[in-house]
Amino acid sequence: MRIVAHDGTAVVRGLWRGRGTAKGQAYDELSRYTTTYAKLGGQWKVLSDQTTKISAAAAVAHLHERVTKANDEAHAAGMVALFTQDAWGIWPNQPIVQGRAAIEQDMRVYFKKIGAEKIHTEVTNLEVEEFGTWAYNLGRYKDIKADGTVIDEGTFVGIWKIEDGQWKLFRDFGTSSLPKKDK
């Protein structure tokens, strides 16, 4: 929760998690809220109250922008911040990578392997479904060198969950559509 107060006005912002049943339907959702108060006649009164559900589709789209930026900049720490503490990376031609620290190390090795050249990642979500505090997405990715050469492309499935009030990647499955390169 964040409170900003000035000259008899206060704005309170935060996250709200609600669980229960309404009109016979169970719900489990995460929302952002903003409540504005004003001191009128010596008493605090609510001027406005707004709650907006945080949808998985919007969160996943925003997080993929951050993933792309971190990948474009070869920034392993920025990339891994989007994963849960107990995340798994299940990627082509390697064992499962478990935990945020191991994923960060794996990404550092990957960025070192591809070198200093700029790699841009394009991500296309084909489907996002939300189930309360869990979601999954299915999509395509393409890694492209600055000269336009495609170095990898494939499909992915992400399983997302809310950790510390934010959507984060819990399981990341990727499959390359390109043939495996001989070492």
List the helices and strands and how they pair.
Elements (H helix, E strand, L loop, with lengths): L1 E5 L2 E14 L2 E16 L2 E11 L2 H17 L3 H5 L2 E8 L6 E2 L1 H15 L4 E13 L2 E12 L4 E14 L2 E11 L7
Parallel strand pairs: 5-10
Antiparallel strand pairs: 1-2, 2-3, 3-4, 5-6, 7-8, 8-9, 9-10
What features would you highlight for this structure?
single chain; 183 residues; alpha+beta; Nuclear Transport Factor 2, Chain: A; six-stranded mixed beta sheet; four-stranded antiparallel beta sheet; 10 strands; elongated
How is this structure best described in words?
The protein folds into two domains: 2-53, Roll (Nuclear Transport Factor 2, Chain: A); 56-176, Nuclear Transport Factor 2, Chain: A, CATH 3.10.450. It has 183 residues and is an alpha+beta fold. The protein starts with a strand and ends in a 7-residue tail after the last strand. It is 20% helix and 58% strand. The protein has helices spanning 56-72, 76-80, 100-114; strands at 2-6, 9-22, 25-40, 43-53, 83-90, 97-98, 119-131, 134-145, 150-163, 166-176.
In short:
With 183 residues, the protein is α+β, with helices and mostly antiparallel strands. 20% of the residues lie in helices and 58% in strands.
Q: How many structural units, i.e. domains?
A: 2
How can the largest sheet be summarized? 6 strands, mixed
DSSP summary: helix tally: 3
Helix proportion:
10-25%
SSE order, one letter for each helix or strand: EEEEHHEEHEEEE
Query: Which CATH class of the largest domain?
Result: Alpha Beta
How would you sum up the global shape? elongated
CATH architecture of the largest domain: Roll
SS-based structural class?
alpha+beta
Determine the oligomeric state from the structure: single chain
Number of distinct beta strands: 10
Average predicted confidence as pLDDT? 85
What distance separates the N and C termini? 52 Å
The CATH topology of the largest domain turns out to be Nuclear Transport Factor 2, Chain: A
Round the Cα radius of gyration to an integer and report it. 21 Å
Strand order of the largest sheet: 6-5-10-9-8-7
Beta fraction: over 45%
Poorly predicted regions are none
